[in-house]
């Protein structure tokens, strides 16, 4: 079911997606927000929690082909081609960074409920893959756009953890938030795409919230076992 946004004076496609990411994205989650809003070093000081984060993100977005690769094959809007090609190349660097961090942090932390965790993440990855390969015009594109916007929050935590480990984070060449929202603002025939783009965005954000919920729960379990 499509999520209803709170009232806004700007109902453009760009404003709708930006509002969704700001209201329901990773940076707004109670477990992630402290790491984004000025307390990154506290979050990554416990490398067990950081390792958990790295591995779960890798399980969701470390595969090839990835979400953006699939979405590019499903997006017919010519105006989006340059943005998609730039995002594909840039996300290849992000996957390499995830791989390097995965090796550096060691194996997935031992936590009660490991089997349930792998099952949940597999289900989330499958859901994301289905979104990225949707034949409904605009859904895959909306999912890809939202991932790029979301990645700014995810990358902030990855960078802080990398520095904690003595690893120099590579420069991200993903399209900026301004570039991405500008693309959405200039999309032709937005009325035809809005609901599908919004659906893809809400669904991806839901999967990311599920990941953060799982990370928070696993951290709490480990704290009780300490």
Automatic annotation (TrEMBL):
Protein name: Uncharacterized protein
Matches recorded under InterPro entries: DUF6975 (IPR054248)
Organism phylogeny: Bacteria, Pseudomonadati, Pseudomonadota, Alphaproteobacteria, Sphingomonadales
Source organism (scientific name): Sphingobium nicotianae
């Amino acid at each position: 079911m499509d999520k209803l946004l709170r009232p806004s004076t700007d109902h453009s496609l760009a404003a709708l997606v930006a509002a969704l990411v700001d209201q329901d994205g990773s940076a707004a989650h109670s477990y992630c927000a402290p790491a984004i809003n000025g307390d990154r070093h506290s979050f990554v000081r416990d490398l067990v929690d950081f390792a958990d984060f790295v591995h779960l993100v890798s399980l969701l977005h470390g595969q090839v082909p990835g979400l953006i690769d699939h979405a590019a094959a499903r997006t017919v809007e010519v105006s989006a081609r340059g943005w998609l090609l730039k995002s594909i190349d840039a996300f290849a660097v992000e996957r390499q960074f995830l791989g390097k961090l995965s090796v550096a942090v060691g194996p997935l932390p031992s936590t009660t409920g490991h089997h349930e965790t792998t099952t949940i993440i597999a289900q989330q990855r499958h859901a994301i893959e289905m979104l990225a390969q949707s034949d409904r015009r605009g859904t895959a594109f909306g999912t890809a756009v939202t991932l790029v916007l979301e990645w700014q929050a995810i990358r902030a935590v990855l960078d802080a953890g990398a520095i904690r480990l003595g690893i120099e984070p590579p420069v991200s060449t993903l399209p900026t938030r301004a570039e991405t929202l500008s693309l959405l603002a200039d999309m032709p025939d937005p009325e035809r795409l809005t609901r599908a783009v919004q659906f893809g965005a809400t669904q991806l954000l839901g999967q990311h919230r599920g990941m953060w919920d799982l990370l928070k729960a696993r951290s709490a379990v480990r704290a009780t076992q300490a």
